Amino acid sequence: MPVRTSDSSHGTPAKGVGLGLALGSALAFGGSGVAAKPLIEAGLDPLHVVWLRVAGAALVMLPLAVRHRALPRRRPALLAGFGLLAVAGVQACYFAAISRIPVGVALLVEYLAPALVLGWVRFVQRRPVTRAAALGVVLAAGGLACVVEVWSGLSFDALGLALALGAACCQVGYFVLSDQGGDAGAEAPDPLGVIAYGLLVGAAVLTVVARPWTMDWSVLAGTADMNGTAVPALALLAWIVLIATVLAYVTGVVSVRRLSPQVAGVVACLEAVIAAVLAWVLLGEHLSAPQLVGGAVVLLGAFIAQSSTPAKGSPEPVAAGGPERELSTPGAAA
């Protein structure tokens, strides 16, 4: 893929609706971490929270899977890649990361994905990249150094940072797979069908890995602490499943059909800002001034890398955007 880009025939009202939906999608994705972290701190294992999220969303999206039941025969590798990397891998690494480091830091590390994709294209595939894209990589790396405060000897938990980087790598792996998954002239699969089956594949994989039968289900019957406020655990889970997963993916898919990939990429950058602000307000996770500046530089680098992407099939040097937006939806992320 990319699966679909915007159509120039869309008028300003349609683009306005698309922008609103994209903002809603970024808000929904950005709120996943602040809802998940209290559940983890209440006693649920991060993998169990991921399994609840993915399995619940897969159940909600099951009717779409039935509707696109021919898709597994047509694109088995694509569905496996989406399920293993963009669903199971990204979510497991991200949720494990936020159990050890602040939500905003974890998501900003994950935003190294566009830079890592460019590294794959340049040094593994040996294809040229634009100067603007290279600048984006440098900015993202420099901004990340400020976010993790390298001058303090990496004051954050090293394993947490490694897990956040693992989430970024999973996004890169899925982008590489999807970039090679569509043959020229082949009909692009409906992204909603890809999401539905990806969630089913991810749920199956996570069931084996997370072993939900060992979960302390009693935690869901109680409350979780959100910066001093007791919130029903089931309410947090409902937000993660229905808002931060199902609604976030669907609004992302619908919005990208009304926007160019470049605009969608810019809006995607707001996800990290939203996550950091929500974590600040709801969880009391304050970032220092250098970290805020570094976060802004990371997002600027990601924006430059994404906005430098030439049209598919263009002879221009390659510069790749975020994988979840290329599929027509985030991070996946998160």
What brief labels describe this structure?
334 residues; globular
Quick summary of this structure?
With 334 residues, the protein is an all-alpha fold. 68% of the residues lie in helices and 2% in strands.
Main pleated-sheet profile: 2 strands, antiparallel
Whole-number mean pLDDT: 78
User: How widely separated are the two ends?
Assistant: 21 Å
Instruction: Count the beta strands.
Output: 2
What is the subunit organization of this protein? single chain
> In the residues, how many domains can be counted?
1
For the largest sheet, list the strands in their spatial order: 1-2
Encode the helix/strand succession as letters: HHHHHHHHHHHEEHHHH
| C-alpha-based Rg, rounded | 19 Å
Note poorly predicted spans. 1-10, 180-185, 310-330
Envelope shape: globular
Q: What is the percent of helical residues?
A: 55-70%
How many helices does DSSP assign? Answer: 15
- Strand percent estimate: under 5%
Judged by helices, strands and strand pairing, the structural class is mainly alpha
Region (Disordered): 308-334
InterPro entries: EamA_dom, EmrE-like
Keywords: Membrane, Transmembrane, Transmembrane helix
Domain EamA: 18-147, 159-304
Q: What can you see in these coordinates?
A:
Residues 308-334 are annotated as: Disordered. InterPro entries: EamA_dom (IPR000620), EmrE-like (IPR037185). It comes from Streptomyces mangrovisoli. There is one protein chain. By secondary structure, the chain is mainly alpha-helical. The chain has one domain (13-326). It is 68% helix and 2% strand. It has helices at 12-30, 32-41, 46-60, 62-67, 71-74, 76-98, 103-110, 113-124, 131-147, 158-181, 191-210, 233-256, 261-283, 289-307, 323-326; strands at residues 223-226, 229-232. Strand 1 (223-226) and strand 2 form a beta hairpin. The longest helix is centred in the middle third of the chain and has 24 residues, at 158-181.
